[in-house]
Amino acid sequence: MADRRRRSRYLTISVLHIIMIMCQALTDEPRFAEPIPNVTVALGRDANLPCVVENLGKYKVAWIHIDRQMILTIHRHVITRIPRFSVSHDNQKTWLLHVSGVQQQDRGYYMCQVNANPMISQVGYLQVVVPPNILDSMSTQSTVAVRENQNVTLTCKADGFPTPKLKWRREDGEGISVDRRKKVAAFDGEQLNLTRISRTEMGAYLCIATNGVPPSVSKRIIVDVEFSPMIWVSNQLVGAPAGTDVTIDCVTEAHPRAISYWVYKSVMVLATKKYSINTTENSYRAEMRLTIKNLQSGDFGNYRCISKNSLGETEGSIRLYEIPKPSAPPKATEIKSSANKEGYKSTPAPPKRQTTIWPALYNPQYPRRTERPPITNEEKIERAEQKPRGHASTGSAYIVRWSAPQLMVVAVQYILTGPYMPPYIPHNAN
């Protein structure tokens, strides 16, 4: 009996505990376990918004798009007629709102609502980002033609979310001239103003749109700067001997592309065995080369290079004249002497002469021209020793150094009395 009473008591307690739990579950109000996260998705991708509810009980969950004021789903049923929206439940606490192929109009706030008393709800945000897109209809055409030294404005517009940033660059990497005062590698803005544009600014310009959402996009605009032809001739006078080949050249600049040719004696020069014509073009610049082979007398004269386009015509002139052929240089001869056996050029030494230097000044007032003048302290006399051959004397030569006044007096004295002979001073042989 005691065991039966004990078992009955335990059973009663267990049933009461279960009843209390059920009553508590029925009486607890539903609540959100976590907030709805903000979701960012690119245009065209799929997005999921979660709503986690505890103690849902007999209540139902609904999804509402606040911006459109549109009910999307209630419990497991889809209310909207937009097929891109759907709902799922994991049989626990999470209700997922699915948006496939997201469009820009799907951006905005989404409410998860529970029809409790009072009603509870929470909101999450779906951000739809859009990569940049350049609007060709609102932008400058792909090709623009403008005359040199005029102004031109390039326009580029783009949409996307976030709003794209626009940047201009030159395709060749050169700088962009801003207000003719400075050059920049890149220019920001929808419009690029080119003031008094020159031919060096001709080329392709890139408008690049970025907003942090890949991919970035760009638009290529070609700017053609038109001007009449201009010609530069580096050598206007060219000389060459007969029987040789000669090349003359001209450099021309023009846009639109010019027709360039050579003229000699009012006749257009064509490519033949006699003439070779070569033209190298680079953008608006071209180099013309004319090679004349085996020059003859009839090939000398004026050659004209002519360039013309729709805006004008110009020409350059080159005169070709004949020069004599260079002669062969003379061969160097080698002089050898018997005294120099190594082959070096030798110069005979001048013969030695015995001289007596007499630097004393001549005094025309001295009574005897054959006597030695007196020596003063101011005069410096250098005497060279005379060496006679054997015991016989062969004579002496004298060098007298005169100043300009003395030379004039000696000349007068020579005219009046005859030549002046300094006295001979004998040297005693040792």
Short description:
The chain is mainly beta and 430 residues long. The protein has helices at 2-27, 404-417, and strands at 31-34, 39-42, 47-54, 61-65, 70-74, 77-78, 85-89, 94-99, 108-114, 120-134, 143-147, 152-155, 158-161, 165-170, 176-178, 182-184, 187-188, 191-194, 203-210, 217-232, 237-240, 246-255, 259-264, 267-268, 275-282, 285-292, 301-309, 312-322, 355-357, 397-399.
Question: How would you describe this protein?
Answer:
This protein is mostly beta strands and 430 residues long. The protein has 2 helices and 30 strands. A hairpin with a 6-residue loop joins strand 19 and strand 20 (217-232). The model is unreliable at 337-344, 353-372 and 376-399 (pLDDT under 50).
Strand percentage, roughly? 35-45%
Distance N terminus to C terminus? 183 Å
Helical fraction equals under 10%
Q: Please give the count of helices.
A: 2
